[in-house]
């Protein structure tokens, strides 16, 4: 269920990012806008009303949305602000259809609106920055989107004080943080948004969506009781408007709450209510998310045939499956579901589709990483050429200055000539040292880039091998197990049960060992949930009956760059392995803490200790440990005696 929630959260995040909030009283909202377009109002009012109608229909009726967009364009004339608004709404129209066109339109809007210095132009400029960040999310990742919201969107609105627009911006930032598992930060921004909106805009649609986002945030933390408080508040706001399309989002939030409380049977009728609104307002993507939750519930209730039909319909409808990662997840679920139903052949078919698509995605990721490395290399080469040209230019300038000085010196007395020559010599030496220093700096940067590339390449190779083992060979072994079980039921007599299950147990042990190897190569929890969670999982992995590990994490931030997180993880992994393999410890205390750009690791064990004068230099494990510490510009202290060993490590994690 955890993987399904991750998939659905990504999709819901996309749906909320791409929307602009409309009034909960949609009928009144639409009627008023349409009346303006048909009236004798000013051109600016007609243009704005047409743009808002275009934005309202862009996901439900593309032809009507395009019609209103072009209708509004006819009223622009030479108004710069209306031109910027048109560019923004053109970006909105293309956002879910063509991200390149959308990005171009948003950039045009930013260019035009940035020249105007009004509150309304700053607000639309903020929206355009947000839309542009969404278009770049797949290329640059969520950090780029967060940076855009924090550095571009919010400052443009915040300078005018608390407003509905600022509350809306905080809510959007909270959505991004929620679906990147930064629940505490998301909760803080939700609180700021609610404080503003409850005070001055208590009946607004912005407050309604903020309540729903807060409820979702608590659901993903399995805090159902806290989530219900905000769901109840959202329900009070939406009850007066039973014909509003926003009801589908409310019922989705309620479905998520019931799943969190494990009230699966009660969630099914809520899903049907939500589907009624998605069909009524052509909310196709939202409908498929409801169906995915329905599939998961039916599977839990062991209504496998119904669950299979729902999942196959989701795949056929394509709204979710158009994303390759989502399709891969659906293939995996269909394989597991058919295996549960005893459909061995069909399970193998879906498993093969999953493996093929997974291999394809892995290859694409490798190509992307190669392109990034190549781009970095080319940039380094350009910097090197620039430095050489600068050095040559400086040398030529020195030669010219020397010649000019010599010509001027002929007209001066000998004392002045000598003084000038001495001055030029000192200047030449100084510039030469500066040039040499620049070259040395460039060499050091290149050496550091090469070291980073080697370590990054090692981690990528670990990830590739882990993925191949887990998804490739693991899938094959799973298929062998399924076929083996099927063959046994038709060919072996009952008296051979004991021997057969012994072999089957060996196969299960092989699969477990394979997963153990894959996990050591590349910890999934580090990639998905961050360093602190990965270290907890690592300690839990090593714990057994005769060994107790006490892990303490203090102020570990999630914004540490991933390569540095991986190096820290490998350092801790090596420390634990040494304590178990060599020290034969029965109790280990591990403490990891962060203070600004410093990361401290302390590990103590009650093992038999070792001679630091000999083992410290000969042990390959400790040499590897020392290399990683040096790479992070850190220092390590080792103290050991027959009562145990203590190791203190301090690392620099500023990414420089």
From TrEMBL:
<dbReference type="GO" id="GO:0000155">
    <property type="term" value="F:phosphorelay sensor kinase activity"/>
</dbReference>
<keyword id="KW-0067">ATP-binding</keyword>
<keyword id="KW-0732">Signal</keyword>
<dbReference type="InterPro" id="IPR036890">
    <property type="entry name" value="HATPase_C_sf"/>
</dbReference>
<dbReference type="GO" id="GO:0005524">
    <property type="term" value="F:ATP binding"/>
</dbReference>
<feature type="signal peptide">
    <location>
        <begin position="1"/>
        <end position="23"/>
    </location>
</feature>
<keyword id="KW-0597">Phosphoprotein</keyword>
<keyword id="KW-0812">Transmembrane</keyword>
<dbReference type="InterPro" id="IPR011990">
    <property type="entry name" value="TPR-like_helical_dom_sf"/>
</dbReference>
<keyword id="KW-0547">Nucleotide-binding</keyword>
<dbReference type="GO" id="GO:0016020">
    <property type="term" value="C:membrane"/>
</dbReference>
<feature type="coiled-coil region">
    <location>
        <begin position="363"/>
        <end position="399"/>
    </location>
</feature>
<keyword id="KW-1133">Transmembrane helix</keyword>
<dbReference type="Pfam" id="PF02518">
    <property type="entry name" value="HATPase_c"/>
</dbReference>
<feature type="domain" description="Histidine kinase">
    <location>
        <begin position="464"/>
        <end position="655"/>
    </location>
</feature>
<dbReference type="InterPro" id="IPR050482">
    <property type="entry name" value="Sensor_HK_TwoCompSys"/>
</dbReference>
<keyword id="KW-0472">Membrane</keyword>
<dbReference type="InterPro" id="IPR003594">
    <property type="entry name" value="HATPase_dom"/>
</dbReference>
<keyword id="KW-0175">Coiled coil</keyword>
<keyword id="KW-0902">Two-component regulatory system</keyword>
<dbReference type="Pfam" id="PF07730">
    <property type="entry name" value="HisKA_3"/>
</dbReference>
<feature type="transmembrane region" description="Helical">
    <location>
        <begin position="406"/>
        <end position="428"/>
    </location>
</feature>
<protein>
    <recommendedName>
        <fullName>histidine kinase</fullName>
        <ecNumber>2.7.13.3</ecNumber>
    </recommendedName>
</protein>
<keyword id="KW-0418">Kinase</keyword>
<dbReference type="InterPro" id="IPR005467">
    <property type="entry name" value="His_kinase_dom"/>
</dbReference>
<dbReference type="GO" id="GO:0046983">
    <property type="term" value="F:protein dimerization activity"/>
</dbReference>
<dbReference type="InterPro" id="IPR011712">
    <property type="entry name" value="Sig_transdc_His_kin_sub3_dim/P"/>
</dbReference>
<keyword id="KW-0808">Transferase</keyword>
């Amino acid at each position: 269920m955890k993987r399904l929630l991750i998939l659905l959260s990504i999709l819901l995040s996309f749906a909320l990012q791409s929307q602009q909030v409309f009034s909960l009283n949609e009928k009144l909202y639409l009627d008023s806008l349409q009346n303006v377009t048909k009236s004798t109002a000013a051109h600016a009012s007609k243009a704005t009303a047409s743009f808002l109608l275009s934005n309202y229909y862009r996901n439900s009726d593309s032809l009507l949305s395009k019609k209103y967009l072009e209708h509004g364009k006819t009223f622009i004339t030479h108004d710069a602000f209306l031109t910027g608004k048109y560019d923004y709404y053109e970006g909105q129209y293309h956002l879910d259809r063509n991200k390149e066109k959308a990005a171009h339109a948003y950039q045009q809007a930013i260019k035009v609106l940035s020249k105007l210095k009004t509150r309304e132009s700053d607000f639309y400029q903020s929206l355009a920055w947000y839309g542009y960040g969404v278009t770049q999310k797949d290329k640059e990742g969520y950090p780029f989107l967060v940076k855009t919201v924090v550095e571009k969107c919010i400052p443009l609105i915040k300078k005018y004080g608390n407003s509905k627009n600022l509350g809306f911006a905080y809510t959007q930032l909270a959505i991004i943080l929620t679906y990147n598992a930064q629940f505490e930060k998301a909760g803080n921004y939700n609180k700021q948004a609610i404080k503003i909106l409850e005070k001055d805009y208590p009946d607004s649609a912005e407050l309604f969506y903020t309540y729903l986002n807060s409820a979702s945030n608590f659901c993903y933390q399995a805090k159902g009781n806290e989530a219900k408080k905000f769901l109840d508040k959202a329900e009070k706001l939406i009850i007066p408007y039973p014909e509003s399309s926003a009801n589908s989002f409310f019922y989705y939030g309620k479905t998520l709450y019931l799943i969190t409380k494990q009230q699966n049977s009660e969630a099914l009728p809520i899903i049907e209510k939500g589907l009624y609104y998605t069909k009524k307002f052509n909310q196709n993507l939202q409908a498929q998310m409801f169906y995915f939750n329905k599939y998961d519930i039916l599977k839990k209730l062991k209504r496998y045939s119904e669950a299979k039909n729902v999942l196959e319909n989701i795949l056929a409808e394509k709204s979710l499956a158009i994303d390759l990662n989502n399709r891969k997840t659906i293939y995996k679920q269909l394989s597991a579901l058919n295996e549960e139903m005893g459909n061995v052949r069909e399970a193998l078919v879906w498993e093969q589709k999953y493996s093929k698509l997974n291999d394809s995605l892995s290859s694409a990721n490798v190509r992307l990483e190669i392109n990034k490395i190549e781009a970095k290399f080319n940039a380094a080469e350009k910097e090197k050429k620039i430095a050489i040209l600068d050095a040559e230019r400086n040398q030529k300038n020195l030669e010219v200055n020397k010649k000019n000085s010599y010509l001027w010196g002929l007209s001066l007395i000998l004392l002045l000539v000598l003084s000038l020559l001495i001055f030029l010599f000192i200047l030449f030496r100084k510039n030469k040292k500066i040039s040499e220093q620049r070259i040395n700096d460039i060499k050091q940067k290149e050496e550091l880039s090469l070291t980073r590339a080697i370590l990054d390449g090692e981690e990528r190779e670990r990830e590739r091998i882990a993925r191949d083992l887990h998804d490739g060979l693991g899938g094959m072994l799973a298929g062998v197990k399924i076929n083996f079980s099927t063959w046994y039921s038709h060919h072996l007599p009952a008296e051979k049960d004991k021997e057969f299950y012994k072999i089957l147990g060996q196969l299960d042990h092989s699969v477990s060992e394979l997963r153990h190897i894959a996990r050591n190569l590349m910890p999934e929890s580090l990639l998905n949930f961050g360093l602190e969670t990965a270290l907890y999982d690592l300690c839990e992995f090593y714990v057994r009956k005769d060994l107790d590990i006490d892990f303490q994490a203090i102020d570990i931030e999630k914004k540490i760059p991933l390569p540095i997180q991986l190096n820290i993880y490998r350092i801790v992994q090596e420390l634990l392995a040494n304590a178990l393999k060599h020290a034969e410890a029965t109790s280990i205390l591990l403490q990891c803490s962060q203070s600004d750009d410093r990361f401290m690791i302390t590990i103590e064990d009650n093992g038999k200790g070792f001679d630091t004068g000999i083992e410290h230099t000969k042990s390959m494990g400790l040499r590897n440990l020392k290399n990683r510490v040096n790479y992070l510009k850190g220092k390590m202290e080792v103290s050991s005696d027959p009562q145990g060993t203590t190791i203190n490590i301090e690392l620099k994690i500023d990414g420089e």
